[in-house]
Every structure is written in C-alpha cells, then in structure tokens.
Design goal:
Length: about 230
C-alpha cells in the first residue's frame, strides 16, 4: 500500500453559489514531487489554500500525516502560495531572521536554508534589488525554515526568466533527497514534466486524472486529452 503523506477526500469549496472545487480527492505519496496541473482558474490554488488552512472546505476531509487535518500539522508543512511576502528594505538574512524569531528557531537554521537555495553569498543586498528568481528562492527558504516534511509551492516559476526557471527546477528536484515531499501547482507543462513523478489534473474544479508518470509519457498530450474530456479517472 502506498504511503501517503497527504490525502484529500471529496473536497468541495463554494464562493457564494459558485462551486469552485468539486469532490477533489488527491493522494500524495511520501517522497514524491506531485504536480497539480490545470488551466488558470481550474481550482488548483483554491485546493492548496484549503490544504494549508487559508480557506475552509464546505465539504470533504483532509488527512495530513495519517491524521485528520488540524492546525498543528502546519508546523510540518512549508508553503509558498502566490508571491513571497518579503521586506524589501531588509537583506535575505534579515528577512529570514524575522521568521526564525516568530518560529523560535536558532540563527543557525538561517544559514542552512540560505545554502540550500543558493543565496548564502548575497551579503547585504536588499531584497528590493533581488531578481524575481532570487525572490522566489528566498520565499522557498522561508518555507523551509521549519524543516518541513511537506513543501507546497503554488505556481513558483511565474514571472521567471529561463535561467531562473532552470535554477528553481534543479532546486525543487533536490528536495525528495532531503526527505521533503513536494506539491507543485502549475499550468506550464514543459516545466512540470521535467520535475514531477506523480500528477493530478484539475479542470473546471474537478480532478480529471491522477497517477504516476514516466519519462517516456507525453504529458502535454495526456493533459490536452484529459482537459478536453476524452479521458477521466
């Protein structure tokens, strides 16, 4: 039986009378990089916000680390939803220090995460002068501060240039080797196909496909087939 680090069962979310997420049942294997795919507006971010406690589901259940979801489980998760919230007048170290103090973590952990995201040599450069890629990596560093078992990244390559995308891709690919499971949402298939080993495809607020992929699979062809309603699981 697959060891699942997180599972959702028939999640539903309404905004007023509009049903944004309809019976989403995800299964995230421990040690995987799980790609949550779908067109813009498909319900990916809404689903991730329910998993991270930013939104409450109207129906359904979330099982985190083998237990019904509680706020205590957030201590075992790291999240980057949308753009990272950074203090532009502070350095990378100072931004991380703010979060480390809030979490009661030692300064030594800051050096660890700066090395992981390859920002240990930026010195006293203010984050307002960072490139978009550097800001995204700092956002991931903040998410890694608490040594999470599960890292949730929502469209992390948005706005990045090709070099930034490549650097972030290499970084994400390294996480399972560090004992970190990743959920990565995206609508850009070319990027995701080089990173993920499991996928879920959401369209119109519904999970249309879920499964393990292999390197020989044409992810774009599968995606188009599923989103157009030819194939459903």
């Amino acid at each position: 039986m697959t060891d699942l680090i997180l599972e959702t069962r028939c999640l539903k979310k309404y905004f007023g009378k509009q049903l944004a997420v309809n019976n989403i049942s995800l299964q995230i294997p421990r040690g995987s990089i799980y790609g949550l795919l779908g067109p813009n507006g498909a319900g990916k971010s809404t689903t991730l916000k329910m998993i991270t406690g930013l939104l409450y589901p109207n129906a359904g259940e979330i099982i985190a680390f083998g237990e019904p979801w509680e706020r205590k489980h957030l201590r075992r998760m790291g999240t980057l939803i949308e753009s990272p919230a950074l203090y532009g007048n502070l350095t990378a170290f100072e931004n991380l220090l703010v979060h480390a103090k809030l979490l009661g973590l030692p300064k030594e952990r800051i050096y660890d995460v700066l090395e992981i995201v390859e920002l240990k040599d930026v010195g006293k450069k203010l984050t307002s002068h960072f490139s978009m890629g550097m800001k995204q990596r700092l956002g991931i560093a903040i998410a890694l501060l608490g040594s999470p078992e599960l890292l949730i990244l929502d469209e992390p390559t948005n706005g990045l240039d090709p070099i930034g995308i490549q650097e972030l891709r290499d970084l994400i690919r390294s996480f399972p080797g560090k004992g970190i499971t990743v959920i990565l949402s995206s609508h850009i298939l070319a990027e995701v196909s080089q990173i993920v080993d499991h996928i879920g495809i959401i369209s119109g607020g519904e999970l249309k496909y879920q499964g393990k992929i292999n390197l020989s699979e044409d992810l774009e062809a599968l995606f188009m087939k599923v989103v157009r309603g030819v194939e459903k699981q």
